[in-house]
Design goal:
Blueprint: E1 9-10, H1 13-25, H2 30-52, E2 56-61, H3 65-79, E3 83-88, H4 97-104, E4 110-112, E5 123-127, H5 139-155, E6 158-162, E7 184-188, H6 193-196, H7 200-204, E8 206-210, H8 219-222, E9 226-228, H9 231-234, E10 252-256, H10 264-275, E11 280-285, H11 290-293, E12 301-304, H12 307-314, E13 320-325, H13 333-343, E14 351-354, H14 356-360, H15 366-375, E15 380-382, H16 386-392, H17 409-420, E16 423-426, E17 432-434, E18 440-442, H18 455-468, H19 473-491, H20 497-502, H21 504-512
Parallel strand pairs: 2-3, 2-5, 3-4, 5-6, 6-7, 7-8, 9-18, 10-11, 10-13, 11-12, 13-14, 14-15, 15-16
Antiparallel strand pairs: 1-9, 16-17, 17-18
Helix pairs in contact: 2-3, 3-4, 10-18, 12-13, 13-15, 18-19, 19-21
Bound molecules: ligand NAX, adenosine-5'-diphosphate (ADP) and potassium ion (K).
Adenosine-5'-diphosphate binds next to α18.
Pfam families: Carb_kinase, YjeF_N
Keywords: ATP-binding, Isomerase, Lyase, Metal-binding, Multifunctional enzyme, NAD, NADP, Nucleotide-binding, Potassium
Catalytic activity: (6S)-NADHX + ADP = AMP + phosphate + NADH + H(+); (6R)-NADHX = (6S)-NADHX; (6R)-NADPHX = (6S)-NADPHX; (6S)-NADPHX + ADP = AMP + phosphate + NADPH + H(+)
Length: 516
């Protein structure tokens, strides 16, 4: 995971605007923030130009404060003797507030961005739109961005975006019409959700976050609920084995196997639960699959449990504190009944992890699952991929709000968690974890090699393993997603699901080395 670490909180564009406002109200001049923002951009540009021995910079400025940052950066770069051109979407004398002040600090020529050329340019700074982008881009602005992206493609020259590539929605990561393809993005104070959510993340290039004089105590008023999924967000909730501990102190997870011809998935989950740190893991198998499972297990224990009655009998052992089911389970009423048994009210606060077929089985009856989760005494974690999410939460099909703003994967996950009353891990390249109380995390980066059969089954097991140890459920779900990605990162190219399990100790070592 080469990106980050980033500051922990992620903001919406509205929250970022509030952070700016609160800072300005506290007595810091808007222009002072802009000078610092521009200095960070100029430093990034200089580093790039020195590396490539480039001298000619084109700054594209928009109508708001993002454009303002651009004018100031242009001035700083010219003072460093780079050859700087500025091209603007609107004439500088039509700007307002700090942007106008910033534009007047540039005493060079201002070209019309609609017709400007990129001849001989070594680097473009994209200062068209930042967090104030309010609607889809079209007309000459859209044409300019398409021309800019084509120039980058053709010449292999680079683009640095100020705050966010223009056209990317900072809150949702959606592309509003068209968007700049940047090589590097310098944002301020905190990342915005749209920097990590797809497709926005793919437009940012490398992301860095500069401090511009906004104090972190503004966050006490803003109360962000979304976090970068990095150890800083949950490391202090992690349970490590204690010197006087024993295996039962680390919990006992039960994973339910499918029938004789579908046993591999649950075995992956079971072994991952053990590597995830559960003290004991039992694979509960139907009798018909016993002979298939038995020779394939060593540290994972095996018990026969046929149907709901068999599972109930197994769960009479109160020390079995987590049940995970779904991988290879089969879709249908039999699986619904097993899920309901796992979730059934009992004096213990047993945790339940539902994945794959355990979710799809309720596609036609999500209310039935909602009821069972409501009655469940312990925490419940659902781990859908895109298809499973769509099947289970098909009511949430709207892509935009009435005002036209895109609804993000983050908001859909948060709504789903609230609606169903469980922690939801919405998997994919930008995995989002959301809790019913509104907290959410987004993974900054994961190896695309994770898109391999059985990889999700491993994640299910890691979640179960962490829950077995009594880790707080939202933290456990986020930590599992991070460990899964860290293990894949450690292995590198050519990974299959079994390799993720083998590399979990490397993820543990990284975590153990970080002080809470
Ligand atoms: N004082 C501040 O508030 C600071 C702001 N900063 C910079 O300011 C940016 C935010 O500034 P603004 O809020 O002015 O917003 P932007 O500069 O991102 O854009 C807002 C302007 O674009 C117009 N606009 C929005 N969507 C459009 C569309 N689709 N087509 C055409 N025009 C459109 C709006 O009417 C407005 O004029 C940040 O991204 C950051 O770069 C930084 O300098 C730090 C300090
Ligand atoms: N392109 C990708 N980049 C990074 N991670 C991915 C990508 N595609 C899938 N993943 C991750 O791989 C896992 C796949 O899970 P899932 O779709 O359930 O697979 P399976 O059912 O085969 O186990 C999830 O953790 C998901 O987040
Ligand atoms: K920009």
């Amino acid at each position: 995971m080469p990106l980050g670490p980033y500051p922990p909180e992620l903001l919406t564009t509205a929250q970022m605007a509030r952070a700016d406002r609160l800072t300005i109200e506290s007595g810091v001049a808007g222009m002072a923030l802009m000078e610092k923002a521009a200095a960070a951009i100029a430093a990034a540009a200089t580093a790039f130009l020195v590396k490539t021995a480039g001298r000619r910079v084109l700054v594209l400025c928009g109508p708001g404060n993002n454009g303002g940052d651009g004018y100031v950066a242009a001035r700083i770069l010219r003072s460093q003797r780079f050859k700087v051109r500025v091209a603007a979407l609107t004439p500088p004398d039509t700007l307002h507030g700090d942007a106008r002040l910033a534009a007047t600090s540039w005493d060079g020529r201002v070209e019309d961005a609609a017709t400007c050329d990129f001849k001989g340019v070594d680097l473009v700074i994209d200062a068209l739109f930042g967090t104030g982008l309010a609607r889809d881009l079209d007309g000459p602005t859209a044409e300019l961005i398409l021309r800019l992206n084509a120039w980058r493609e053709e010449t292999k020259q680079k683009i640095i975006a100020i705050d966010i590539p223009s056209g990317v929605d900072g809150t949702s990561g959606a592309i509003r019409g068209v968007a700049v393809q940047a090589d590097s993005t310098v944002t301020f104070f905190r990342l915005k959700c749209g920097h990590l959510l797809l497709p926005g993340r793919l437009r940012c290039g490398t992301i860095s976050c500069a401090h511009i004089g906004i104090r972190s105590n503004v966050l006490e008023k803003i109360q962000p609920q979304t976090f970068v999924n990095e150890p800083a967000a949950w490391r202090d909730a992690l349970r490590l084995p204690s010197v006087e501990g024993h295996k039962y102190a680390r919990g006992h997870a039960v994973v339910i196997s499918g029938g004789a011809s579908h046993t591999g998935a649950a075995r992956l989950s079971a072994l991952a639960a053990l590597r995830g740190g559960a003290g004991l893991v039992t694979l509960a198998t139907p009798q018909e699959a016993f002979a298939v499972n038995a020779p394939a297990l060593t540290a994972v224990m095996l018990r026969v449990a046929d149907g709901p009655a068999g599972l109930s009998a197994l769960l009479e052992d109160k020390r079995k504190n987590v049940v995970a089911l779904g991988p290879g389970l089969g879709v249908g009423e039999a699986s619904c009944a097993l899920v309901e048994t796992a979730l059934a009210p009992s004096p213990e606060r047993r945790a339940v992890v539902l994945d794959a077929d355990a979710l799809t089985s309720f596609a036609l009856a999500p209310d039935r699952l909602r009821e069972a989760i409501r009655a469940a005494p312990g925490p419940v974690v659902l781990t859908p991929h895109g298809g499973e999410f769509a099947r289970l939460f098909h009511g949430q099909r709207w892509e935009r709000t009435i005002s036209g703003a895109p609804i993000s994967k983050l908001e859909r996950t948060r709504d789903a968690a609230r609606d169903i009353g469980a922690i939801v891990i919405f998997k994919g390249p930008d995995t989002v974890v959301a809790a019913p109380d509104g907290r959410a995390s987004i993974l900054a980066e994961a190896s695309p090699w994770l898109a391999t059969a059985g990889s999700g089954d491993v994640l299910t097991g890691i979640v179960a393993g962490l829950l077995a140890q009594g880790m707080e459920p939202f933290a456990a779900a986020s930590c599992a997603v991070w460990m899964h990605a860290a293990a894949a990162d450690d292995f590198g190219a050519g990974l299959i699901a079994d390799d993720i399990i083998d590399r979990l100790p490397a993820a543990w070592r990284r975590l153990v080395s970080i002080q809470p």
